Amino acid sequence: MKVKVLGCYGGIAPGQGMTSFLVNDTVALDAGGLSFALPVDKQAMVKDVFISHAHLDHTCCLPFLIDNSFASPGFSLRIYGIHEVVTALSRHLFNGSLWPDFTSIPDDLTPVLKLVTLEPEKAVKVGNLKIRAVPVSHSVPTTGFIVDDGDGSLAFSSDTGPTHHFWDVVNATKNLKAVITESSFPNSEEDLARISGHLTPALLGKELDKLKRDVPVYIYGAKPRFVSRIKKEISALKRKDVTMFVQGRTYTV
Ligand SMILES: [Zn+2]
Questions:
Q1: Domain of 241?
Q2: Reduced to 3 states, what is the DSSP secondary structure of residue 233?
């Protein structure tokens, strides 16, 4: 499986402080930075976007992704998320006020946008991928995703503070190949991290104690002003196979 980093942490344009990963060129996990980081012809190849939660740093490019590709022949986009995510997107974003309601454009029968509600932990099939939403512990309803291409699975926690069930599901995923998780604040800001449902490197270390599988772990999410401190604190964990994602790079997992 090929994972291109479209947005991972701050300080690096484009997509500063935003989150989006592109799987095999056509499926996106979150949409922060997506339309900033991909040329328009590549944006039109994205047909399915899985949204972990409604926060803007994970959703802000959805309007432009649609707008930039709207005139392409046969263009349509499906956006997936749990009930709370889909509700927030239709109520607060595609509401005819902040942005057009593309779920009824050009008409109700053949809209360019479909919002698809996910049942937690029930896999949906997109091409050769099976994708499951797994709840995590953030400040708003949030899920990570397990993406399985038949040969291997990738686990993406999305934004989360200390959590449990996600790691149980990850540990039980037989063909697990890699984990993407976060570290948003430095150790000195642990109170802030806990209140906002994020991890520091120290909290990340405790989360990784729950991971019982020997797979590479990729880190995203460092807030722009803390990137270098977080990098240092993560390397001080002295864990093998823990790597900070690099903006724009493609990883094979
Ligand atoms: Zn968030």
A1: 2-252
A2: helix
pLDDT in tens, 118-170: 999 999 999 999 999 999 999 999 999 999 999 999 999 999 999 999 999 99
Beta-sheet strands, E only, within 142-249: 143-148, 153-156, 176-182, 217-220, 242-244
Of the pLDDT bands very low, low, confident and very high (cuts 50, 70, 90), residue 101 is very high
Distance 153 CA to ligand 1 centre (A): 23
Number of domains in the chain: 1
Ligand 1 midpoint to CA 188 (Å): 20
Spacing, Cα 48 to ligand 1 middle (Å): 20
pLDDT tens for 52-78 read 999 999 999 999 999 999 888 888 999
Query: 204 C-alpha vs ligand 1 centroid, how far in Å?
Result: 16
Q: What's the 109 CA to ligand 1 centre distance in angstroms?
A: 33
Distance 138 CA to ligand 1 centre (A): 7
Query: Ligand 1: distance of its center to the CA of 212 in Å?
Result: 26
Residue 15 predicted with pLDDT over 70: no
149: left (phi over 0), alpha (psi -120 to 50) or beta: alpha
Tell me how far apart the alpha carbons of residues 25 and 126 are, in angstroms, rounded to a whole number. Answer: 13
Å from CA of 55 to ligand 1 middle:
5
CATH code of residue 80: 3.60.15.10
